[in-house]
Amino acid sequence: MKEIIESFLEQGFAIIHDVLEDLCVEDLKHDCEILVDRLAKRRLEEGKLTDLFTDSPFENRLIHLFENSPDEVPTIFRPELHLEGFYTLFAHPRLLEIAKQILGSEIRIYPNYSVRPKLPENKRTEVPWHQDAGYTSGNSEILRMMNVWTPLVPANRRNGCMEFVPESHKNGVARHNKDQYYLQIHNEALEPLIKRAIPIEINPKDVVIFSNLLFHRGLPNKSNHIRWSIDFRYQDATQPTLRSTVGHLLRSKVSPEKTVRGPAHWASLDFQ
Ligand SMILES: O=C(O)CCC(=O)C(=O)O
Fold first, then answer.
1. Which residues have any ligand 1 atom within 6 Å of their CB?
2. Alpha-carbon distance 183 to 190, whole Å?
């Protein structure tokens, strides 16, 4: 625990190997398969498919389902994540224990939790250099967060893992510009630091936690399969979200009765 916290504070991130159980990863993949299956059935009903590709592996099925219309493939699932399996990750006791050390005892899941199926050569999934805090800046308050990212297939340079600039979280929020899909750190701030960037190549069951001030990006996927990953953020729940959505309280000393009670409760709630 001490090393993890030190690395988070000093480097701006910490890789934690083998923290998720096999069952947790299986549940997550199972829920992602539910999302893909729903999409497949909808496209069949709409007459956009003649085959559900049920025998295709997890790493490829979405590619086949959208072969004829790659522009329609979802790049992110968000409101859809109120399924029981996702709760086993979001409320994972070890992750919450680390979050408690970093954020204190009032912990919400910030209303920005995502599953990203990064399809090969899909420009819309190439996330440029940014700080997550860039998306909430313009306010005097910097939100206190612990970001979490975990892959559902081995993530590497070829299939579009994340890249980080260690220690880039120490100077506040840099200026960002809007590119076609995302915010991007202005060149002036990026240029001096970019040579220190390192790829975060990790496997299912591993998790990387990082500061919302860390410079990071998602590389392009140049492989022949989907790079599936999940990212979410724990926030100090004594702060506002600075969004119209409020997230969900996961741990609280002050109001334990307001926390999500378990997987079934999570599945009964909405993205809000
Ligand atoms: O998964 C990716 O490629 C990028 C994710 C990201 O930028 C984030 O979680 O903040």
1. 116, 118, 127, 132, 149, 160, 162, 216, 218, 229, 231
2. 13
Domain residue spans of the chain: 2-22+75-268
The pLDDT of residue 216: 98
Q: What is the pLDDT of residues 76-92, one digit of tens each?
A: 999 999 999 999 999 99
Q: Please give the CATH topology (third level) of the domain spanning 2-22+75-268.
A: Jelly Rolls (2.60.120)
Pocket test for ligand 1, best of 202, 216, 226, 232 (most atoms within 8 A of CB): 216
Question: Ligand 1, from 112, 127, 214, 221: best to mutate by most atoms within 8 Å of Cβ?
Answer: 127
Among 137-146, 157-166, 179-188, 202-211, name the one with the lowest average pLDDT: 137-146
Closest residue by Cα to residue 150 from 208, 99, 199: 208
Q: Count CB-CB contacts under 10 A for residue 113.
A: 22
Mean pLDDT of the 15-43 span:
97
pTM above 0.85, yes or no: yes
